[in-house]
Each structure stands twice: as structure tokens, then as C-alpha cells.
Specification:
mainly alpha, about 400 residues, two-stranded antiparallel sheet
């Protein structure tokens, strides 16, 4: 008598090369490596056999989910997917850090990705790993060691609250925005506008040039912005205000944050949060325009809910709030945020930008994301779209 599992594999083999090629392409795109030839536990077939049979049975998404179980999906595909968001150079060639590890952990654990910019969550390596130094607020040694020792991130990342692991109170946590890596990249020096700009670029897929709007009130533009650059007020009216009028009221959410370091050693610094006390960087260059806005608290307002940037599809929540957490909720509940995640996943697994001909598939991926924010499932569905026929 032939075992049912073997019959299933025999059926897959008879299906021909199309489904097998599709299965292999799914695995290659998601895991970045070919599937192993080892027999899967409890079955009479290899992983490729099982994936092929899933496709024959009309369930290619299940085949994609099998590929996602490969640790390489987390250690390589997801790491490279998220790494550019964590540095100004937008390069994948940077050490693993708490920002990227948190993205990986959230995807693994099916945490709704709409919480990315607001949750009190960070992922670290399992404390039982004896070869790995403990997490520190002052350096990236913990994550660099995870990467250097090729630790399986799927198996060894554990969730912690930022408020429990650092000195941030729960209300000051804002997902990846308040990770050490984000602070190192976007709160360092400057005026904290970088955090807003790169959040828009990385998570709403719009740089400031794309959301310029000079019809908004300039009443919250800070003093450091000259109203007559080079002695010509038209430059401010036609260019500068188009970004600052909308950006400055929202970047005010970060008024209590800084990245502090000493002795010109930027790598050994930490995120600093001073509730009720605005960071001095918000008050620099006040003589550029004395009547300009003076930041006194971390209250923010979204002036872009009206005007041309209403097309970003803001959610039904409040258009104002206090601090980074509530701003993160505002940004992550926009249609632009959802669309951005889908487009990035499509590019990562299909190895090309979505085109107009992909509109139907993109809409389906977007509907899946909007259902519960499950980015892992979006990866699986996108891979199916691009598995070929």
C-alpha cells in the first residue's frame, strides 16, 4: 500500500515542470537561496515537492509561506528590505541594529505593521546567547555581534518593551522612530527635521519635494528659516515655505528628543528624552527671523490634511497630538503608508517597480495589508504574483 504522502509527491512530479519552476522561483525570491534537497519531516517529499503540490492544488500562497519559513528570509531578505530605512545613506551595507531587528521581529510575529511608528516594542537577541553582549542604550555591540556570529534571527529574536529596556517612559516610545539606530541616524545634531523627512520618505514613499505645498499657513515655521534667503523673499514664498509650512508643525512632535554623544564619537551615544523641556536644537539661529515660531512644547498639527496633500489619505483619527507616538499613529494610518509598504514588498520580491499593468495585483495586495497589517502575508502574495506562468 502506497503512503498518502508519497502519492501526493508522485502527483506533484506528474504535474510537469511549470509548477516546479514556479515553486523554485517562489523560494528563490523569498529566501534568496535554493530550497534544500532534504526530506521534510513527517513527509515523503522535499520542500520543493511540497511547494509544487501546493501550487498544483491551487494554493500557491501556502507554497510561498513554506519558503518564508526559511531562516534566510529573516536574516537576509528582511534585513536588506529594512536596512536602508535605518540610515541617511539608505544603504543595505550597514550593521544590523535595533531598528532593523524590530522590523524583522514584527514581521515574524505578525504584529500589525501599522504599529511600526508607534508601538512600545523592540526586538533583541535571546539573552541566553552566551556569545552575545547584552543590549545597551549606548552602543550597537549587541546587534553587531548577532550578525557577526550569524545568529538565526528567526529563532533567536525576542520581543521587549522599549520602556522596559531603556529609560523611555511608555508614552515616549514610537516604534522604530525611537530605536537607538533611528536616533543615531536622524536625531543626531541638526534640527530633528531629518527624522520627519526620512520617515516620510521611507514609510510614506514621498520625499519633501513631492509634498511641497505653499498654500498652507507658515505660522509654525521656526525662527531658523530665513524669510528672505539671499535677500530675496520670493525664494521663501515660492520654495522654502512649501516644505516648512507642513513639516515644521509635525516635526514639533520630536521636540523632546536628541541623540547625545561625547568626544566626537558618534557611535557611542544614546537617545535622550527630556519631557517638558524642548531640545536646544529647536531654538537655534533665532536671529534668522525673530518673529518666527518658537517651539515651547511637543504638540504637533497636520496641516496637510487639507490642500493637495489630503491625497495622502489621512485616517479618521485626530489631526493633532502631543509627541512622537501620536504622530506615528497619524502617519501609519494613512493610505500613503499602506501603499508604500505594498510597493516596497512588490519591489523586493518581484525585483522591479510596480507598473500600471500591475494595478489589479497591487490593489489586491493593498486590500490584504489593510485587512490586518500583516506584512508577512503581503510578501507571500506578492511572490505569487511574480512566480511566472
Amino acid at each position: 500500500m502506497v503512503a498518502a504522502g508519497l502519492l501526493s509527491v508522485m502527483g506533484a512530479s506528474m504535474a510537469g515542470s511549470l509548477e516546479r519552476n514556479q515553486a523554485k522561483r517562489l523560494h528563490d525570491r523569498l529566501a534568496g537561496v535554493p530550497p534544500t534537497s532534504a526530506m521534510e519531516a513527517g513527509t515523503s517529499g522535499t520542500l520543493l515537492d511540497l511547494m509544487e503540490q501546493d501550487i498544483v492544488n491551487g494554493d500557491p500562497e501556502q507554497a510561498a509561506m513554506r519558503a518564508i519559513e526559511n531562516p534566510n528570509f529573516y536574516n537576509v531578505t528582511l534585513k536588506n528590505f529594512a536596512m536602508p530605512w535605518s540610515n541617511e545613506e539608505q544603504t543595505v551595507f550597514a550593521p544590523l541594529n535595533d531598528y532593523v531587528a524590530t522590523v524583522i521581529g514584527m514581521v515574524r510575529d505578525d504584529v500589525p505593521f501599522t504599529q511600526l511608528l508607534s508601538t512600545d516594542l523592540v526586538y533583541i537577541g535571546d539573552p541566553s546567547l552566551s556569545s552575545i553582549p547584552a543590549y545597551s542604550m549606548d552602543n550597537n555591540d549587541h546587534y553587531a555581534a548577532l550578525e557577526r556570529n550569524a545568529i538565526d534571527l528567526k529563532a533567536n529574536l525576542v520581543a521587549r518593551t522599549q520602556s522596559g529596556l531603556t529609560d523611555l517612559p511608555p508614552e515616549a516610545t514610537a516604534g522604530v522612530l525611537t530605536t537607538r539606530a533611528a536616533a543615531r541616524a536622524f536625531f543626531i545634531d541638526g534640527t530633528n527635521r531629518a527624522m520627519f523627512r526620512f520617515t516620510m520618505l521611507n514609510h510614506l514613499c514621498n520625499d519633501l519635494e513631492q509634498v511641497k505645498d505653499n498654500t498652507r499657513s507658515p505660522d509654525r515655521v521656526r525662527q531658523d528659516v530665513s524669510r528672505s534667503p539671499g535677500g530675496d523673499s520670493r525664494i521663501f514664498q515660492n520654495n522654502c515655505v512649501a516644505c516648512h509650512a507642513g513639516m515644521d508643525p509635525m516635526a514639533q512632535a520630536f521636540a523632546y528628543y536628541d541623540y547625545a554623544y561625547t568626544d566626537d564619537d558618534e557611535e557611542t551615544g544614546r537617545l535622550v528624552y527630556t519631557p517638558g523641556s524642548v531640545q536646544p536644537k529647536y531654538l537655534i539661529n533665532e536671529n534668522n527671523f525673530k518673529p518666527g515660531y518658537v517651539t515651547g512644547i511637543d504638540h504637533w498639527d497636520n496641516y496637510w490634511r487639507k490642500g493637495p496633500n489630503a491625497s495622502l489619505g489621512w485616517g479618521s483619527g485626530a489631526s493633532s497630538g502631543d509627541g512622537a507616538k501620536s504622530l506615528g499613529i497619524e502617519l501609519a494610518n494613512s493610505k500613503a503608508f499602506a501603499g508604500c509598504q505594498v510597493k516596497k514588498v512588490f519591489r523586493a520580491v518581484c525585483l522591479r517597480e510596480a507598473q500600471e499593468r500591475d494595478r489589479f495585483d497591487i490593489d489586491n495586495l493593498l486590500a490584504s495589508f489593510n485587512q490586518d497589517g500583516n506584512l508577512k502575508r503581503v510578501f507571500a502574495k506578492a511572490a505569487v504574483v511574480c512566480m511566472g506562468d
